[in-house]
Write a structure and sequence with these properties.
Chain A is an alpha/beta fold and about 130 residues long. Chain A is built from 5 helices and 5 strands. The C terminus of chain A is likely disordered. The chains are: A alpha/beta (about 130), B mainly alpha (about 950). The interface between A and B is medium-sized, with 25 and 26 residues.
């Protein structure tokens, strides 16, 4: 089923790859390259899933996550954290702030799509995705 | 009516009452609620001075000498006025040093000398024996007289058997039993007997009342008051002389000497020392006693003269012994109850004296005479016995019995010849021998032990020769020749007319010679040599006692002790329970939880010694403690050494203080360094995590697109080319990054390889410009090159220098990648340095950014909406390179007006400009 997905990532190459993968899967995709933009687009377009990079300029991924979760309208939005640092503190922090899953870079494309599908199906809300 | 049974029963009842009072007093004392802590009780207890001598003998003396009985009471009255100074000082000294007897006092003052203690004890015992005999005589005589009621019969001693069958002996033994019960039920470390004091105070009241009763009876019942008696006496020629001083009342010298000797007696009689000093509860009580005691003396003497005159008037001359008037007058007037009351009063006076005196003497005998000898007697091995308290009590009881037996013997041998008063005066003169040693001891630091020993010995010997032996001679136990012709027939050595001194009564005569010998020896020998250290410290303690605020104790002491050994030692003499109790109290005083926590220091040792002194005398205590504690006697030079060490220790401690301050500052520095290291560590961690992040980013794209291309064969050529392009680009980026990171790491850790040669910088700039020309063309930025001729040659690594130039040039193009962008690179000499500038006309760099761009992974415009290209390591590496060759890299920029990156390098020493091809070239920029 086609869903709306917001990609919040500032590295153009990664954006390109994510856009390709998600579009190929049939979803509607739009991109934000800063945290502020991400929040704006999230509120405007109300995506089903946000692929959120932690290292975003202006407002970082954690802040975005916290703000999104504070918004009652966006409670249902799934958040998939993208992080280059796999350290436990980062992961725990993200999950504590309300992310539904995380995946570390570099990710495998198959794993990524599996996590995305699981999140969109609504099953993986409690279990963190693994690389 | 007054049968033996009645009298004996009454006596026993009375003594029983005394005992009950004593028991109650002790019980209250144990409970901590003393009944004798009261100045009135104290003053009454001092009245033990008035014995049966006062009760019976005063009247007897008055009958022969009129008011000549008074000096014996004038003396104490005068002395009382001086008590303020003398007695208070003695009390304070004794409390501070835990003095338990007069022998202890003297011994302690003169360096805790056992010899002196023993000598004082011997003098005291021999001197007091006559006095005790006097009491025995009084009791037995009064008993016989009362028994003969209603007849007045003078008892006769002639023919009385020795010991068995002699009433007096039984009396003596009974008194011994009473004394043992009163005073030796247990050993008290302070030698205080509160119950006894209570009983004595009561007894003082009883004898006063009894005497006043008979006085009132005689004055107002038998006669019509004072006026009546005196009036009648004046009309009798014999008697009128009694009322005048200078008549039969005795001359001035007699009065003077009697007053003087009784002044000394009120201080130095062992029983007086016991009640006035040892039993004293509070030295403030002395203040009240100063006037209460003379008041008592007045009260008890008011009726003496009337009774004496009344008796002389009543009885035919010579028939009735005047000593007995207080008893015989009521008897002759058929007053059995009064007579019994008087008897009890006399008994009271006598028993009070005997008990207190004997207890005092037995303490001295035990502590200062017997124990020192026994402790030295190795064969007994007393120092090893566990519990010596039973032995001590046994010795004391034995001493009590012995003293009473001696008293009885004296009574038997010599009591007949003398009137009571005279016997008493013999004792007074004996104890007067203590005066020089004691009074000198508390006011003169120069008094020495040797002086005191010789003084006492000399005085005692003279007393013996001029008074005691004559008393035996007068009773027939020594040849009378001795008196009239002196020893070996030498006239000058006649005992009672020594060296021809005549015209004095025997008391005055004895007093004169004995005190002369005593004081002479004491002062002379004391002046002749210096006291030892221990003596001197004791002397100071005693003489300065009223000036001292802190407790006594030898401050200079050196030795090692253990608390266990000290407790053990104390337990052997006091009994283990009492020893622990005493130490526990001491620990509480010092705020220490338990005995085990007591420090084995000088204070503890001194305290134990004091406690022990109560049981065995200070001299023996000293010996015992010294044996337990490995003590070292201190000499003056040792004291100086201790002071020296103390001042050294002080200097050391100041040094230590300073060192510790230095240590503290060093520690602080270390802490700061540690913090810096930790920060660096954190930075390193940050660096690593940033590097990780930077590496993973290109990897992500590479992997993602690789997989995409792999999984999606249906992609069209365009997309494939595009994706592959990304892969290639990101791989390059990754490679670059890895190289840079490794470079930087190597440079920072000093592991980089440098190929240093002499360089022509212009040539390197040419190379760099050529490399970037395509990049500049692509970005439509003009590049101008300005290289001067006179460039100094530089020593550097060519590749690295190239790296720096490339970095600066590529940065410049990035930051003015707009149309009209222009970059100029110039190289020239600046003094001894080579200076290179890369000037662009881009957007410029803010001051905040200027500070951070040389840091790792920092780039200008981190917070801009656009993520800047580049890794952020370029300038950091360039900086490392430039600085490695001794140069400097910096930036100058005004935001909006371009930026200038400059570096300088030290030139190699040059003789002249290097010939080089003309440098100016312009590269045409493509438009």
């Amino acid at each position: 089923m086609a869903r709306r997905i917001l990609i919040a990532e500032d590295e153009p190459s990664i954006v390109l790859s994510l856009e390709f993968l998600l579009s190929e899967a049939g979803h509607e995709v739009f991109t934000a390259t800063t945290g502020a933009d991400a929040l704006k687009l999230a509120q405007e377009r109300k995506p089903d899933l946000i692929v959120l990079d932690v290292m975003l300029p202006v407002v970082n991924g954690f802040e975005v996550c916290r703000t999104l979760r504070a918004d009652p309208d966006l409670r249902g939005t799934r958040i998939l954290m993208l992080t280059a640092r796999g350290r436990e503190q980062e992961v725990a922090r993200g999950l504590a702030l309300g992310a539904n899953a995380y995946i570390t870079k570099p990710f495998g494309t198959r794993e990524l799509m599996k996590v995305v599908e699981d999140l969109l199906k609504g099953e993986a809300s409690d279990r963190p995705g693994r690389q | 009516m007054l049968t033996a049974t009645v009298i004996v029963l009454a006596s026993f009842l009375y003594v029983g009452l005394l005992f009950a009072i004593a028991y109650y007093g002790d019980k209250r004392a144990d409970a901590g609620r003393s009944i004798i802590a009261n100045p009135y009780i104290y003053a009454l207890s001092l009245a033990v001075y008035c014995t049966s001598w006062t009760f019976y003998g005063s009247v007897g003396r008055a009958a022969t000498s009129g008011i000549g009985f008074l000096p014996i009471y004038l003396g104490p009255t005068l002395m009382a006025a001086l008590w303020w100074y003398v007695l208070v000082k003695i009390v304070r000294i004794s409390k501070a040093n835990r003095i338990t007897s007069i022998a202890d006092f003297v011994a302690s003052r003169y360096g805790k000398s056992q010899l002196l203690g023993g000598l004082v004890t011997v003098i005291a015992v021999l001197g007091i024996v006559p006095y005790i005999a006097l009491q025995l005589k009084a009791i037995s005589t009064s008993f016989s007289i009362t028994l003969n009621y209603p007849e007045v019969v003078m008892p006769s001693q002639v023919g009385a058997p020795l010991f068995i069958g002699d009433n007096t002996f039984y009396i003596a033994m009974l008194l011994a039993a009473f004394t043992i019960l009163f005073g030796t039920r247990h050993l008290d470390a302070t030698e205080r007997h509160e119950g006894l004091v209570a009983a004595i105070a009561f007894e003082s009241v009883v004898k006063l009342l009894a005497f006043m009763a008979v006085g009132v009876f005689v004055t107002y019942v038998m006669y019509d008051g004072f006026g009546d008696i005196f009036h009648r006496a004046q009309s009798v020629p014999d008697l009128s002389g009694l009322l005048m001083l200078g008549g039969a009342g005795g001359n001035y010298t007699t009065w003077a000497s009697l007053t003087f000797v009784s002044m000394l007696a009120i201080m130095f009689l062992p029983r007086q020392f016991q009640v006035a000093v040892v039993e004293n509860v509070d030295e403030r009580h002395v203040a009240k006693a100063v006037w209460l005691f003379p008041l008592y003396l007045l009260a008890i003497n008011v009726f003496v003269l009337p009774i004496a005159l009344g008796g002389l008037l009543h009885f035919p001359a010579g028939r009735v012994d005047a000593d007995t008037f207080v008893l015989t007058l009521p008897i002759s007037e058929q007053q059995p109850m009064l007579a019994l009351f008087v008897f009890i009063g006399g008994l009271s006076a006598a028993t009070g004296m005997v008990i207190v005196e004997t207890i005092a003497l037995s303490t001295m005998v035990c502590n200062d005479l017997v124990m020192p000898v026994l402790l030295r007697w190795k064969a007994l091995r007393l120092t090893e016995r566990r519990d010596l308290s039973a032995l001590l009590l046994g010795i004391r009881r034995g001493a009590i019995v012995m003293v009473l037996v001696l008293g009885y013997l004296y009574f038997y041998l010599a009591g007949e010849a003398y009137a009571l008063v005279s016997i008493g005066l013999i004792s007074f003169t004996a104890v007067a021998q203590f005066a020089p040693a004691i009074i000198g001891g508390i006011y003169w630091k120069g008094g020495t032990r040797l002086g005191a020993v010789w003084g006492l010995a000399a005085g005692f010997f003279v007393w013996l020769y001029t008074l005691l032996l004559p008393s035996f001679a007068k009773s027939g136990w020594l040849p009378i020749i001795f008196l009239s012709e002196g020893i070996f027939g030498i006239d000058l050595l006649r005992p009672q007319n020594l060296f021809g001194l005549s015209g004095l009564d025997e008391i005055t005569h004895c007093l004169f010679w004995s005190l002369l010998a005593n004081i002479g020896c004491y002062v002379g020998i004391s002046l002749a040599h210096r006291p030892g250290a221990a003596e001197h410290s004791q002397a100071t303690l005693f003489v300065d006692a009223l000036k001292q605020t802190s407790g006594a104790g030898s401050q200079f002491w050196r030795g090692r002790a253990s608390v266990d050994e000290l407790t053990d030692l104390l337990g052997r003499f006091l009994g283990p329970y009492r020893a622990r109790e005493a130490l526990r109290a001491y620990a509480v005083e010092r705020g220490i939880a338990s005995i085990d926590a007591l420090p084995a220091d000088a204070a503890l040792v001194h305290h134990v010694e004091s406690l022990l002194a109560g049981a065995i005398g200070s001299a023996s205590a000293r010996v015992m403690v010294a044996s337990v504690v490995q003590e070292e006697p201190l000499r003056l030079d040792e004291v100086l050494q201790i002071i020296d060490e103390a001042s050294q220790a002080l200097a050391h401690s100041r040094e230590l203080e300073q060192k510790s301050r230095e240590l503290e500052s060093a520690t602080n520095e270390l802490r700061a360094a540690n913090r810096r290291l930790q920060e660096l560590d954190r930075l390193k961690d940050d660096f690593i995590s940033t590097v990780t992040h930077e590496l993973r980013t290109p990897l992500t794209s590479i992997r993602a697109f690789s997989e995409i291309l792999h999984d999606n064969p249906q992609l069209d050529i365009e997309q494939r080319a595009r994706f592959l392009g990304v892969i290639i680009k990101e791989s390059e980026r990754l490679t670059r990054l890895i190289n840079q990171v490794l470079d930087l790491a190597k440079m920072e850790s000093g592991n980089a390889e440098w190929q240093t040669t002499e360089l022509d910088v212009g040539e390197v700039i040419d190379d760099a410009v050529t490399s970037v020309s395509q990049l500049y063309k692509d970005n439509h930025v003009a590049l101008e090159v300005e290289v001067s001729d006179a460039l100094p040659r530089v020593v550097a690594d060519r590749d690295r220098l190239l790296q720096v130039l490339l970095n600066l040039l590529s940065n410049a193009v990035k930051f003015c990648a707009t149309a009209g962008g222009h970059v100029r690179i110039s190289a020239r000499r600046a003094g001894p340095l080579l200076r290179v500038d890369v000037i662009d006309n881009g957007m410029g760099i803010s001051p905040a950014d200027q500070e951070v761009i040389f840091e790792k992974f920092r780039q200008a415009g981190d917070t801009l909406t656009q993520k800047p290209a580049g890794s952020g390591l370029g300038l950091a590496i360039s900086k490392q390179i430039v600085e490695h060759f001794g140069g400097r890299l910096w930036v100058t920029s005004t935001p909006g007006a371009g930026a200038t990156f400059s570096f300088s390098l030290p030139g190699k020493d040059e003789r002249g400009p290097h010939v080089h091809a003309p440098a100016e070239r312009a590269v045409a920029a493509g438009r």
